[in-house]
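Hey L., structure's done. Input below.
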Amino acid sequence: MHNSRAPKVSLSIMMLLQYAVWGVWLPYLATYLQASIAEGGLGFTSTQVGWILGLAGSIGAVTAPFLGGQIADRFMNAERWLAILLIIGGVLKFITASVHDYNVFLILSIFYSVFYMPTLALTNSIAFAHLGHAERDFPIVRTWGTIGWIIASNAFPLIWLQHNVHVSALPPFFVGEPLANSKALIADALRVSGIMAVLYGVWAVFFLPKTPATRSVEHPLAFLRAFRLLTHRGFLVVTLVALPIAMIHQVFFIRTSVFLNSFLKFEDQYVGPIMSISQFSEIGFLAILGLFLKRLGYRGVLTIGCLAFAARYALFAISTEQTRTIAVAACVLHGICYGFFFAGSFLYVEKVAPADSRHSAQTVFGIIILGLGPVLAGLYNQWLDHAFPTDGVNPAWRGLWLVQAAIGLGSGILLALAFRPGSTRAEPTPATA
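Output:
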């Protein structure tokens, strides 16, 4: 039952903190891991960094139905379980900041992911449970997650990693060794994230609305029932399309900064702000997602999201150093890519899932986007390296981006042709022994 007055403020704060905890360290981790020991980094190889960023996230997403939806659907209030996962993950992240051995760092990263990844779906489920009109209100609440990411990912470097900062000019609590420009300071992002996660977990217990477990007697294993949603045609089609879309979505983050810097010749200090256009665009399109769902329905919105991927990569493909503003403008399309397809997909899952397994349905779908998608992206990225080898500096960018565009176009066509609006919610399926 929805509250008569949805606690939008607390849910918005929840989203802001959820993505700030992630955004404060993720954009900078690879730089820290690969930087030489002399610079203050850990000196890991690119292959080792790939394992840390890819394997850890994938394992966390795959285990999410067990640690996330299963417990929240059946045994414990969702907000309390969210708090427990956040606090454990925060402690692990804080410890990781002091680790210099690759094997230990990898193991801790995997454990952290196992505890953090379920919280992404849990926050969606908590929001859906307390928003009276999810299609209208969720995009606005979720927008605060993007704001949290932007604030955290920009505030940390501006405060702590700024170049030409004299230690004597900093407030007393910042004064220490004069290492303001050292890669070693990036490790502090992990410590900040850990502290934020613990405080966020404590806040969740006291300020998030109570979201009790449904405790269905007929269906004790909620996550198994959520997998049965694959027999629902609409859910199956969206899931099949989400795999290639999640794959090319990951490649955007892997390759775009290199493309802007080494091929289009944007200077280092401008690459970050250009990439941030994507997040600001995301805020705008999430704010109007509800209106488009009302006018076009899920098939229309999700199809537009796929086609936006195709359009963005097509614009990248025709961009050169002389016409590089085209690539900058293409970053605006990220808002449609993420807002219309990914946020729209989570809303669709909420709409079609049986009422007593919504938490698990969200985490199962999270496996596709955050688990299998990154795994396929890693293999796909290796194929791109072979298909479009570098000339010593750059790969054949035009061909590489056109392949991305073709996948986005094909995904959009498949969704438009195969998706059929069925019943608004999948029929309950009796549990089997």
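The radius of gyration is 21 Å. The CA atoms of residues 130 and 220 lie 23 Å apart.

-- N.
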